[in-house]
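batch_manifest entry 22 of 60
target: Prenyltransferase
source organism: Flavobacterium hungaricum
requested by: lab member K.T.
priority: normal
notes from requester: please return tokens only, no post-processing; we will run our own comparison against the previous entry in this batch. if the run fails, retry once and flag.
--- input ---
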Amino acid sequence: MKLLKQLLDFYLNSSIHVALSCYALVHITFHVFHIQYDEAMTLFVFFGTIVGYNFVKYDALVRLKKKPIGIQLKIIAFLSFISLLLVGYYFFQLKRITQIVSFGIFAITALYTLPFFPNRRNARNWAGVKIYIVAICWVGATLVLPLINAEIPFSIDFFIKCIQRFVLVFVLILVFEILDLANDDPHLQTVPQTIGVKKTKLLGFLLLIPFWFLEIFISSFNYHDAIINLIMVVMLMLFIFFANPNRSKYYTSFWVESVPIFWWLMIVYL
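--- output ---
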């Protein structure tokens, strides 16, 4: 049992799980816009997520040497290095415009982590903006990049899906912020810190209503996808309802981040 817990912790701490969530969202983008599977695109996003998230999580720890680096962190660093090499490999298989846009997403990630401006904290610590930066990066990586690389023109469907994807990630982060309420620095002004837990949950519920109804306006609307989306909305509402600061870290780091994976599996198997 202890070994299984250690493996699960490594799986989560190394960002493999969140990378699978992004991988799933790329597949959902392929499904919605009828794009043929693109291995370079999906694996670029998968390994890029591992590199990006580990950079964000462990940069300060390594750069500022706040505490000794343990075995697990060394393994994560090695995994991140291999992932970086693979990101470079798949990067050169993407179209030029996709490469350019991916640099923009990388710049936002770097801004989120590194203090570029004198006497200023990084964007991760700017009051009230963290949730928007993360949501924009997810939309860019899992929706914008695949469409650009497939040379799909930006239509009304594209903008609707951008809104939906942004709302999805925004709501997922709300659950994280509820659980992190006791540990987050008050100056961050996260949504629960600003409006309270009950109103944050209400906000999540309200956002999921237009998220689902926007599906009706998609030109390729079908009842199969609409029902699956409704199941996912109910699942998210339950996660929001039962969220509280006393929940285990696995509630968000495993179960909540599994929502895009469940969504993709429902599309494939239902």
